[in-house]
Amino acid sequence: MTKIKRHRGWAHVVTVPAAWAIVAVNVLMIVWIVLSSLKSTREMALHPWSLPKHLLWSNYRTAWVSAQFGAGVGNSLLLIVGSGLACILLAAPAAYALSRFRVRSSGLHTALFVLGLGIPAQTMFIPLYVAFDRIGLVDSVWGLMLIYTGAGIPYALFLLTAFFRSLPAELEEAAALDGAGPGYTFWRIMLPLARSGLITIFVLQAIGHWGETFFALVMLHTKTTLSLSLYNFTQTMQYTGSRYSVLFAGLVILIAPLLVLYIVLGRRIIEGISAGYGK
Q1: Is 177 exposed, middle or buried (0-12, 13-18, 19+ CB in 10 A)?
Q2: Verdict on whether the full-model pTM lies above 0.90
Q3: What is the DSSP letter of 189?
Q4: How many helices and strands (H and E) does the chain possess?
């Protein structure tokens, strides 16, 4: 027992400072990106570690106009909201059925869904592109939304299955005694109790796909997302000259919503993930 306490003590001494050091590096990096976005490109090159002499907020306007961030933000919002809601609407009933209905093959079906977590995206994009091209979903935001939804369902189902499995069976028995059917029991009783898991899934879906580039670059040709707008802007810099301060302003526009989302809902995300894995 003493050895275990001593081991935990050493682990605490090593891991806690290391974790805070990683946090400090990340915070300093974000602060440096924000300060760099408010400098001129010349000042940024000559004095990369100094505070800006004048705050050039116009870099954000230039980034928004030059890189067409407006269209990118609109499409990215549509993608994360649409795919997040679709994930929840499809995965929640499936997770409830697999975890609560006493069917022998439930475990096998759950395992088959979870296997989707281990499939690399690089192995899927060619058959997906061919199939989507035949049905007219290439260069379509709706086609990309289908891909994001399909990619998010395995983890959503894995997490929600654990949530529903942990809920007491007495709730369903009481609802059945009151004459409630399975559909009513799911939508009005069980689904609200899994609220933490639903919020966690939606937020993780948003974080995962807000800056997604690989599938967006492959599937979209004329339309754009936020990450593609930033990518296209870096491509134009070879003709318009280096405008790194504007590029950093674009980076801030890209990461700011995620930071706000994590600051507001970070505790609920951690609680949701911990509850899902622990149950």
Answers
A1: exposed
A2: no
A3: I
A4: 14, 0
